Structure formats: C-alpha cells, structure tokens
C-alpha cells in the first residue's frame, strides 16, 4: 500500500471495528478511485457500490463519499463491484474484484466457516480459518491494483446530484415521506411499507 498513510488505514480499521479481507478490498478500491480520478475531493467523488460488505465502510471513510451527501449509492446486487466518478471531470470507471485476487483461498475458507456455523469445527479448524483470513487480507493489501481489479471505463451513467424534494403525508400511517418514494394506490398516497402491505398479491 502506498496511497494512504498507515494512520489513515488504522483509522479506517477503527471506524469499521476490525481488519478483515472484506475491509482490505474496500481500502484498495478507495485507493484505486483516488489514483484513477486524480484525488477528487469528498464533494467531487461519487461511489456506487454493488454490495453491502465490510469494504463499503473503508470506501466511505477513505473517500469521504457518504449516503448523507448523496454521493455514496448502494445497489443491492451482491457483486464485489464498485464504480467511481468525478463530478467535475465526468471521468469514471467500474472495478470488479478479479476472481483470481483471492489466490484460491476462498473455497477452504468457505468450508471451514460452514463447519464453524454448524458447530462441527475443531479448534484446529478455527485456527486454520484465522490463518487463512490473515493470509488473504495480507495478499489483498499488497496485490498490485491492476491485478486485483478488472476495470471498465464509464463515460456515461454519472449519478445525478441529490435534490431536496417535498415530503408528502402517507395516508395510511401518517408519516411524512419524500415525494419520490411515495406510491399511489386506490386514490391514496402511500409510503413504500404501507403500499407493500395493501398491494400484496399473496
């Protein structure tokens, strides 16, 4: 690692609570974003994450992109993929974790984790999983970025800046809801949870 200081990485680990392979992926994705986009400010950068795994905390902490500022966008696709854009230049790219980045360690880790989950793991199994996790996070922290991620330039698809919209009162629960998140049903304006209750087909 060379882009972020040791202190920045330690602070990101403290923010998340621990260092793990998932957080290492996020740290390296944040590094890739800063390098490829020429160090954008936390207002210029936009991050689109396709997972809710540990690494998202590192991306948020190290790039300054946040849900509250509207420049950290979560798409629940279950993919280890991250897109980054710079609002000022329009430059962007999508990075997907290279399957080979894990060095073939994931299958044994998955099997050991399942044994632990089902109460069948020995002390040696638990120790082995800990060793594998440490080996993987070390590998991920030092692998060249171009080997770790498969990158595709993004010339379109820069998310729109956040807008302040009116709030409408849900006619079922009475709670105010952002206009763009309401639904119409039976002549009523409903929030999404109330709409789901009355519109259920099963």
TrEMBL record:
Pfam families per UniProt: FmdE, zf-dskA_traR
Name this polypeptide is given: Formylmethanofuran dehydrogenase
InterPro entries in alphabetical order: FmdE (IPR026328), FmdEsu_dom (IPR003814), tRNA_methyltr_O (IPR053194), Znf_DskA_TraR (IPR000962)
Record-level Gene Ontology MF annotations: zinc ion binding
Keyword Zinc-finger assigned: yes
Key words of the record: Metal-binding, Zinc, Zinc-finger
Every Formylmethanofuran dehydrogenase subunit E domain range: 15-149
Residues in the signal sequence: none
Zinc finger DksA/TraR C4-type domain residues: 167-200
Keyword Amino-acid biosynthesis among record annotations: no
């Amino acid at each position: 690692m060379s882009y972020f200081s040791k202190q920045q990485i330690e602070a990101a680990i403290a923010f998340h609570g621990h260092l793990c392979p998932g957080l290492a992926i996020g740290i390296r994705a944040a590094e890739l974003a800063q390098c490829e986009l020429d160090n954008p400010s936390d207002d210029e950068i936009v991050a689109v994450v396709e997972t809710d795994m540990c690494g998202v905390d590192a991306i948020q902490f190290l790039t300054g992109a946040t849900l509250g500022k509207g420049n950290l966008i979560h798409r629940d696709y279950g993919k280890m993929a991250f897109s980054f854009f710079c609002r000022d230049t329009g430059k962007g790219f999508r990075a997907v974790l290279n399957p080979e980045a894990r060095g073939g360690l994931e299958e044994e880790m998955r099997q050991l984790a399942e044994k632990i989950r089902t109460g069948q793991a020995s002390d040696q199994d638990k120790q082995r999983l800990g060793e594998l996790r440490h080996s993987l996070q070390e590998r991920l922290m030092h692998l060249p970025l171009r080997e770790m991620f498969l990158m595709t330039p993004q010339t379109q698809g820069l998310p729109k800046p956040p807008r302040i919209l009116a709030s409408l009162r849900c006619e079922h629960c009475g709670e105010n809801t952002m206009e763009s998140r309401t639904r119409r049903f039976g002549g009523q304006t409903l929030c999404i949870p109330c709409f789901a209750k009355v519109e259920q087909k099963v």
